[in-house]
Amino acid sequence: MRWSMRWWPITRQGSLPCSAARPAEVRLSELYRDTVRIFAEHGLDNPQEDARHLVSGVLGLSLSAMVTEGARVIDADEQAAVAAAVERRKNREPVYRILGAREFYGLDFLLSPETLEPRPDTEILVEHCLAFLDRRIAESRSARFVDLGTGTGAIAISLLSQCAGAEGVATDISEGALETARSNALINGVAGRLRLARGSWFGAVTGRFDMIVSNPPYIASAEIEALQPEVRDFDPKAALDGGATGLDAYRMIADGADDHLEDGGVVALEIGAEQKSDVTQLFQGAGFKLLVAAKDLGGNDRVLMFVRDR
Fold first, then answer.
1. Where are the alpha helices (DSSP H) in the chain?
2. What is the pTM of this model?
3. Helix and strand tally (H, E) in the chain?
Protein backbone atom coordinates (compact mmCIF):
# COMPACT_ATOMS: atom_id res chain seq x y z
CA MET A 1 0.00 0.00 0.00
CA ARG A 2 1.36 3.42 -0.93
CA TRP A 3 0.87 6.60 1.03
CA SER A 4 0.98 10.17 -0.20
CA MET A 5 3.31 11.31 2.59
CA ARG A 6 6.21 9.64 4.37
CA TRP A 7 6.29 9.59 8.15
CA TRP A 8 9.06 8.60 10.55
CA PRO A 9 8.67 5.12 11.99
CA ILE A 10 7.07 4.84 15.41
CA THR A 11 9.65 3.99 18.05
CA ARG A 12 9.14 2.38 21.44
CA GLN A 13 9.32 5.82 23.06
CA GLY A 14 6.99 7.35 20.47
CA SER A 15 9.60 9.99 19.53
CA LEU A 16 11.30 10.73 16.25
CA PRO A 17 14.56 8.85 15.75
CA CYS A 18 17.80 10.78 15.46
CA SER A 19 18.81 10.97 11.80
CA ALA A 20 22.31 9.77 12.66
CA ALA A 21 21.18 6.85 14.81
CA ARG A 22 20.48 3.35 13.61
CA PRO A 23 16.70 2.75 13.77
CA ALA A 24 15.68 0.48 16.63
CA GLU A 25 14.32 -2.92 15.72
CA VAL A 26 10.55 -2.85 16.10
CA ARG A 27 8.42 -5.94 16.51
CA LEU A 28 4.73 -6.30 15.74
CA SER A 29 3.72 -6.52 19.40
CA GLU A 30 5.62 -3.31 20.17
CA LEU A 31 4.13 -1.50 17.19
CA TYR A 32 0.65 -2.51 18.30
CA ARG A 33 1.23 -1.33 21.88
CA ASP A 34 2.63 2.00 20.68
CA THR A 35 -0.40 2.50 18.45
CA VAL A 36 -2.81 1.74 21.31
CA ARG A 37 -1.00 4.24 23.52
CA ILE A 38 -1.06 6.98 20.89
CA PHE A 39 -4.78 6.48 20.25
CA ALA A 40 -5.54 6.52 23.97
CA GLU A 41 -3.53 9.73 24.41
CA HIS A 42 -5.61 11.34 21.67
CA GLY A 43 -8.89 10.38 23.29
CA LEU A 44 -10.15 7.81 20.80
CA ASP A 45 -12.99 5.73 22.21
CA ASN A 46 -11.67 2.27 21.28
CA PRO A 47 -7.86 2.53 21.09
CA GLN A 48 -7.19 -1.22 21.28
CA GLU A 49 -9.76 -2.19 18.65
CA ASP A 50 -8.74 0.66 16.35
CA ALA A 51 -5.06 -0.25 16.69
CA ARG A 52 -5.69 -3.94 16.03
CA HIS A 53 -7.71 -3.31 12.86
CA LEU A 54 -5.53 -0.49 11.55
CA VAL A 55 -2.17 -2.20 12.03
CA SER A 56 -3.40 -5.54 10.69
CA GLY A 57 -5.04 -3.85 7.70
CA VAL A 58 -2.00 -1.79 6.74
CA LEU A 59 0.33 -4.78 7.08
CA GLY A 60 -2.05 -7.19 5.36
CA LEU A 61 -2.28 -9.50 8.38
CA SER A 62 -5.22 -11.39 9.83
CA LEU A 63 -6.42 -10.43 13.30
CA SER A 64 -5.20 -13.78 14.61
CA ALA A 65 -1.72 -13.03 13.23
CA MET A 66 -1.64 -9.92 15.43
CA VAL A 67 -1.46 -12.37 18.34
CA THR A 68 0.49 -15.28 16.91
CA GLU A 69 3.12 -13.22 15.07
CA GLY A 70 3.93 -10.69 17.78
CA ALA A 71 7.67 -11.32 17.42
CA ARG A 72 7.66 -10.45 13.72
CA VAL A 73 10.14 -7.68 12.88
CA ILE A 74 8.52 -4.71 11.12
CA ASP A 75 10.72 -3.20 8.44
CA ALA A 76 11.15 0.54 7.86
CA ASP A 77 8.66 0.77 4.99
CA GLU A 78 6.00 -1.04 7.03
CA GLN A 79 6.65 1.23 10.01
CA ALA A 80 6.30 4.29 7.80
CA ALA A 81 3.02 3.03 6.33
CA VAL A 82 1.57 2.35 9.78
CA ALA A 83 2.77 5.72 11.07
CA ALA A 84 1.02 7.50 8.20
CA ALA A 85 -2.19 5.63 8.92
CA VAL A 86 -1.89 6.40 12.64
CA GLU A 87 -1.54 10.10 11.86
CA ARG A 88 -4.76 10.01 9.84
CA ARG A 89 -6.62 8.20 12.62
CA LYS A 90 -5.39 10.76 15.16
CA ASN A 91 -7.24 13.31 13.03
CA ARG A 92 -10.39 11.19 13.49
CA GLU A 93 -10.50 9.69 10.03
CA PRO A 94 -12.25 6.31 10.48
CA VAL A 95 -10.10 3.19 10.40
CA TYR A 96 -11.85 1.60 7.44
CA ARG A 97 -11.73 4.77 5.37
CA ILE A 98 -7.98 4.80 5.89
CA LEU A 99 -7.80 1.16 4.79
CA GLY A 100 -10.18 1.82 1.89
CA ALA A 101 -12.39 -1.21 2.47
CA ARG A 102 -14.63 -2.86 5.04
CA GLU A 103 -16.20 -6.27 5.56
CA PHE A 104 -19.99 -6.49 5.56
CA TYR A 105 -22.07 -9.67 5.75
CA GLY A 106 -18.95 -11.74 5.17
CA LEU A 107 -18.01 -9.87 1.98
CA ASP A 108 -15.38 -7.22 1.25
CA PHE A 109 -16.49 -3.77 0.11
CA LEU A 110 -14.37 -0.96 -1.25
CA LEU A 111 -15.12 2.48 0.18
CA SER A 112 -14.92 5.88 -1.47
CA PRO A 113 -15.55 9.51 -0.42
CA GLU A 114 -19.02 9.28 -1.99
CA THR A 115 -20.16 6.30 0.10
CA LEU A 116 -21.03 5.54 3.70
CA GLU A 117 -19.22 2.76 5.50
CA PRO A 118 -21.56 -0.22 5.75
CA ARG A 119 -22.27 -0.74 9.45
CA PRO A 120 -22.98 -3.99 11.31
CA ASP A 121 -26.49 -2.82 12.27
CA THR A 122 -27.44 -2.80 8.58
CA GLU A 123 -26.87 -6.55 8.51
CA ILE A 124 -30.16 -6.81 10.45
CA LEU A 125 -31.91 -5.28 7.44
CA VAL A 126 -30.18 -7.72 5.10
CA GLU A 127 -31.23 -10.71 7.22
CA HIS A 128 -34.91 -9.74 7.12
CA CYS A 129 -34.73 -9.03 3.39
CA LEU A 130 -33.15 -12.44 2.78
CA ALA A 131 -35.93 -14.19 4.67
CA PHE A 132 -38.52 -12.52 2.43
CA LEU A 133 -36.59 -13.18 -0.79
CA ASP A 134 -36.16 -16.84 0.11
CA ARG A 135 -39.92 -17.21 0.52
CA ARG A 136 -40.58 -15.32 -2.71
CA ILE A 137 -38.11 -17.44 -4.68
CA ALA A 138 -39.59 -20.64 -3.23
CA GLU A 139 -42.99 -19.53 -4.54
CA SER A 140 -42.02 -18.27 -8.00
CA ARG A 141 -38.35 -19.30 -8.53
CA SER A 142 -37.26 -15.69 -8.97
CA ALA A 143 -37.40 -12.29 -7.30
CA ARG A 144 -36.52 -8.73 -8.26
CA PHE A 145 -35.64 -5.97 -5.87
CA VAL A 146 -34.49 -2.37 -6.06
CA ASP A 147 -32.04 -0.85 -3.58
CA LEU A 148 -32.59 2.92 -3.40
CA GLY A 149 -29.52 4.97 -2.50
CA THR A 150 -27.14 2.02 -2.71
CA GLY A 151 -23.81 3.68 -1.84
CA THR A 152 -21.21 0.91 -1.76
CA GLY A 153 -23.85 -1.56 -2.93
CA ALA A 154 -23.51 -3.43 0.37
CA ILE A 155 -27.19 -4.28 0.76
CA ALA A 156 -27.89 -5.24 -2.85
CA ILE A 157 -24.66 -7.22 -3.28
CA SER A 158 -25.11 -9.08 0.00
CA LEU A 159 -28.65 -10.06 -1.03
CA LEU A 160 -27.53 -11.27 -4.44
CA SER A 161 -24.63 -13.22 -2.96
CA GLN A 162 -27.08 -15.20 -0.84
CA CYS A 163 -29.98 -15.50 -3.32
CA ALA A 164 -29.03 -17.14 -6.60
CA GLY A 165 -32.56 -16.65 -7.92
CA ALA A 166 -32.66 -12.90 -7.30
CA GLU A 167 -31.91 -9.96 -9.57
CA GLY A 168 -31.42 -6.42 -8.41
CA VAL A 169 -31.40 -2.79 -9.44
CA ALA A 170 -29.39 -0.33 -7.36
CA THR A 171 -29.71 3.44 -7.60
CA ASP A 172 -27.78 6.43 -6.33
CA ILE A 173 -27.56 10.13 -7.14
CA SER A 174 -23.75 9.97 -7.07
CA GLU A 175 -21.83 8.64 -10.07
CA GLY A 176 -18.86 8.07 -7.77
CA ALA A 177 -20.98 5.89 -5.49
CA LEU A 178 -22.22 3.89 -8.48
CA GLU A 179 -18.65 3.32 -9.66
CA THR A 180 -17.78 2.02 -6.19
CA ALA A 181 -20.85 -0.24 -6.20
CA ARG A 182 -19.93 -1.50 -9.68
CA SER A 183 -16.45 -2.44 -8.49
CA ASN A 184 -17.86 -4.16 -5.43
CA ALA A 185 -20.33 -6.15 -7.53
CA LEU A 186 -17.45 -7.38 -9.69
CA ILE A 187 -15.28 -8.23 -6.69
CA ASN A 188 -18.09 -10.24 -5.12
CA GLY A 189 -19.20 -12.01 -8.29
CA VAL A 190 -22.73 -10.65 -8.71
CA ALA A 191 -22.27 -8.01 -11.43
CA GLY A 192 -24.26 -10.06 -13.92
CA ARG A 193 -27.39 -9.84 -11.77
CA LEU A 194 -27.15 -6.20 -10.66
CA ARG A 195 -28.13 -3.20 -12.79
CA LEU A 196 -26.99 0.23 -11.62
CA ALA A 197 -28.97 3.39 -12.35
CA ARG A 198 -28.22 7.00 -11.52
CA GLY A 199 -31.02 9.12 -10.15
CA SER A 200 -32.99 10.20 -7.12
CA TRP A 201 -35.16 7.54 -5.53
CA PHE A 202 -37.74 6.21 -8.02
CA GLY A 203 -36.66 8.68 -10.70
CA ALA A 204 -33.98 6.20 -11.80
CA VAL A 205 -36.17 3.10 -12.17
CA THR A 206 -39.15 1.77 -14.08
CA GLY A 207 -41.29 -1.29 -13.55
CA ARG A 208 -42.31 -3.20 -10.45
CA PHE A 209 -40.34 -5.18 -7.89
CA ASP A 210 -40.94 -7.85 -5.29
CA MET A 211 -39.03 -5.78 -2.78
CA ILE A 212 -38.01 -2.16 -2.37
CA VAL A 213 -35.16 -1.76 0.10
CA SER A 214 -33.30 1.30 1.32
CA ASN A 215 -31.02 2.62 4.03
CA PRO A 216 -31.72 6.29 3.27
CA PRO A 217 -30.35 9.45 4.91
CA TYR A 218 -32.30 9.90 8.14
CA ILE A 219 -30.46 12.45 10.30
CA ALA A 220 -32.18 15.79 10.81
CA SER A 221 -30.19 18.59 9.16
CA ALA A 222 -29.69 20.53 12.41
CA GLU A 223 -28.20 17.47 14.14
CA ILE A 224 -25.38 16.83 11.69
CA GLU A 225 -22.92 19.28 13.30
CA ALA A 226 -23.25 17.45 16.61
CA LEU A 227 -22.27 14.08 15.16
CA GLN A 228 -18.93 12.45 15.95
CA PRO A 229 -16.09 13.79 13.77
CA GLU A 230 -15.67 10.37 12.17
CA VAL A 231 -19.18 10.71 10.73
CA ARG A 232 -19.59 14.47 10.35
CA ASP A 233 -16.25 15.10 8.66
CA PHE A 234 -15.81 11.97 6.56
CA ASP A 235 -19.19 10.52 5.58
CA PRO A 236 -20.83 12.16 2.54
CA LYS A 237 -23.40 14.69 3.74
CA ALA A 238 -25.89 13.64 1.08
CA ALA A 239 -25.98 10.18 2.65
CA LEU A 240 -26.64 11.61 6.12
CA ASP A 241 -28.96 14.60 5.72
CA GLY A 242 -32.61 13.59 5.91
CA GLY A 243 -33.96 17.13 5.86
CA ALA A 244 -35.45 19.22 8.66
CA THR A 245 -37.10 16.26 10.40
CA GLY A 246 -34.93 13.46 9.03
CA LEU A 247 -37.93 12.06 7.16
CA ASP A 248 -37.56 13.50 3.64
CA ALA A 249 -36.35 10.26 2.05
CA TYR A 250 -38.99 8.13 3.76
CA ARG A 251 -41.69 10.47 2.49
CA MET A 252 -40.39 10.15 -1.08
CA ILE A 253 -40.24 6.36 -0.84
CA ALA A 254 -43.70 6.10 0.71
CA ASP A 255 -45.20 8.32 -2.00
CA GLY A 256 -43.73 6.28 -4.87
CA ALA A 257 -43.65 2.74 -3.52
CA ASP A 258 -47.13 1.67 -4.64
CA ASP A 259 -46.30 2.36 -8.28
CA HIS A 260 -43.24 0.10 -8.16
CA LEU A 261 -44.33 -2.83 -6.00
CA GLU A 262 -45.60 -6.20 -7.19
CA ASP A 263 -48.59 -7.82 -5.48
CA GLY A 264 -47.44 -9.21 -2.16
CA GLY A 265 -44.24 -7.20 -2.30
CA VAL A 266 -42.61 -5.40 0.63
CA VAL A 267 -40.80 -2.17 1.42
CA ALA A 268 -37.83 -2.79 3.75
CA LEU A 269 -36.13 0.16 5.45
CA GLU A 270 -33.43 1.01 7.91
CA ILE A 271 -34.47 3.80 10.28
CA GLY A 272 -33.01 6.01 12.96
CA ALA A 273 -33.38 4.86 16.56
CA GLU A 274 -36.34 7.16 17.31
CA GLN A 275 -38.14 7.11 13.97
CA LYS A 276 -40.31 3.99 14.16
CA SER A 277 -43.54 5.83 14.93
CA ASP A 278 -43.02 8.65 12.41
CA VAL A 279 -42.00 6.38 9.53
CA THR A 280 -44.85 3.98 10.27
CA GLN A 281 -47.34 6.85 10.15
CA LEU A 282 -45.94 8.00 6.80
CA PHE A 283 -46.39 4.57 5.25
CA GLN A 284 -49.80 4.04 6.80
CA GLY A 285 -50.87 7.31 5.22
CA ALA A 286 -49.66 5.99 1.86
CA GLY A 287 -51.73 2.80 2.14
CA PHE A 288 -49.27 0.40 3.79
CA LYS A 289 -49.27 -1.56 7.02
CA LEU A 290 -46.36 -2.57 9.21
CA LEU A 291 -45.28 -6.17 8.68
CA VAL A 292 -41.97 -6.39 10.59
CA ALA A 293 -40.25 -4.22 13.18
CA ALA A 294 -36.76 -5.27 14.32
CA LYS A 295 -34.16 -3.88 16.68
CA ASP A 296 -30.41 -3.58 16.10
CA LEU A 297 -27.50 -5.01 18.06
CA GLY A 298 -27.86 -2.24 20.64
CA GLY A 299 -31.57 -2.78 21.21
CA ASN A 300 -32.67 0.25 19.16
CA ASP A 301 -35.44 0.22 16.56
CA ARG A 302 -33.64 -0.24 13.24
CA VAL A 303 -35.66 -2.13 10.58
CA LEU A 304 -39.24 -1.74 9.35
CA MET A 305 -40.97 -3.72 6.61
CA PHE A 306 -44.31 -2.73 5.08
CA VAL A 307 -46.89 -4.35 2.80
CA ARG A 308 -49.93 -2.87 1.08
CA ASP A 309 -52.86 -2.54 3.44
CA ARG A 310 -55.39 -4.25 1.16
1. 28-41, 47-59, 65-68, 76-90, 95-99, 122-140, 154-162, 175-187, 229-232, 248-257, 276-285
2. 0.87
3. 11, 11
Report the distance separating Cα 198 and Cα 204, nearest Å.
Answer: 6
Picking from 185, 208, 196, 198, the residue whose alpha carbon sits closest to that of residue 257 is: 208
The tens place of each residue's pLDDT in the chain, 310 residues long, gives 333 322 333 333 343 344 445 456 899 999 999 999 999 999 999 999 999 999 999 999 999 999 999 999 999 999 999 999 999 999 999 999 999 999 999 999 999 999 999 999 999 999 999 999 999 999 888 899 999 999 999 999 999 999 999 999 999 999 999 999 999 999 999 999 999 999 999 999 999 999 999 999 999 999 999 999 999 999 999 999 999 999 999 999 999 999 999 999 999 999 999 999 999 999 999 999 999 999 998 999 999 999 998 7
Domain limits, CATH 3.40.50.150, in the chain:
102-308
In the chain, CATH 1.10.8 sits at: 26-96
What CATH number is given for 26-96 in this structure?
1.10.8
**C-beta of residue 121 within 8 angstroms of C-beta of residue 144:** no
* Assigned CATH class of 102-308: alpha beta
